[in-house]
Design a protein that fits this description.
This protein is about 30% helix and about 25% strand. It has about 240 residues and is of the alpha+beta class. The chain folds into two domains: about 150 residues, Nucleoside Triphosphate Pyrophosphohydrolase, CATH 3.90.79.10; about 90 residues, Orthogonal Bundle (Arc Repressor Mutant, subunit A). Strand 9 and strand 10 form a beta hairpin. The protein is elongated, with a radius of gyration of 20 Å.
Length: about 240
């Protein structure tokens, strides 16, 4: 490497690269978000997304997976890059560029794996406390991205337990889109996807008649991921 090139590198401002994870969960009734109490200054003891810095020799995907594992003890969860945030004063301590990811986990399956070290707590998405820095902006943009993608791909199944009922699935969609969905139309659309396998077992917690459990056909899920029958019309409008 020649000297002029080295000088160009030396003249650049050093920056930190951080990862923040917007972790969504569904408990069968409510869509929730996982938050932590920040353990250091600035903004110590305030509510925050789970985050960390990209390590030496670590790529972005690996860093995001590590951050999520440290919080939840989970590997192989749905994780997708959202956006890069680089406003110069976003972190009052140091110039920090943040790459945000969103993730889906099943609350009931993994609630006991949450790390006590980070004082992690689930909050209903519309009742979450004020967050530090630009984390509220990240959450809102993640919600918009999820709404848009869920209209085109069956990603919301990642939030469900291994067996679930149609009413639970419909409730999840209603939670994500903050709207009521016609019951008969929803049942027709979801059954026409061919993604569900009906089980003989029923959930009778809500009524004596009960509702049949279903499970996801994983092979069809992967095959149809890019050609999902829209549940929500005009998904482009959801970006506004």
């Amino acid at each position: 490497m020649n000297k002029p090139l080295l000088n160009k590198y030396a003249d650049q401002t050093a920056m930190l690269v951080a990862i923040d994870c917007i972790v969504f969960g569904f408990d069968g009734e409510n869509l929730k978000i996982l938050l932590i109490k920040r353990g250091f200054e600035p903004a110590k003891d305030q509510w925050s997304l789970m985050g960390g810095f990209v390590g030496k020799g670590e790529d972005l995907e690996a860093a995001a997976g590590r951050v999520l594992f440290e919080l939840t003890g989970l590997n192989n969860v749905y994780l997708e890059q959202l956006k890069t945030y680089g406003e110069p004063l976003r972190d009052p301590y140091a110039r920090t560029v943040c790459v945000a990811y969103f993730a889906f986990i099943d609350i009931k399956k993994y609630q006991n794996q949450l790390s006590d070290e980070y004082h992690a707590e689930w909050f209903q998405i519309d009742e979450a406390p004020q967050l530090i820095f630009d984390h509220n902006e990240m959450v809102e943009e993640a919600r918009k991205r999820v709404r848009y993608k869920a209209a085109l791909h069956p990603i919301l199944f990642e939030l469900l337990p291994q067996k679930f009922t149609i009413p639970q699935l419909q409730n999840l969609y209603e939670q994500v889109y903050a709207t009521r969905i016609d019951n008969r139309n929803f049942i027709r659309k979801v059954t026409s996807t061919g993604l569900l396998i009906k089980l003989q077992e029923k959930d009778k917690s809500g009524s004596k008649r009960g509702a049949f459990y279903f499970k996801l056909d994983k092979k069809k899920y992967k095959a149809k991921f890019q050609s999902f029958l829209n549940f929500i019309p005009n998904p482009d409008q959801l970006l506004g």
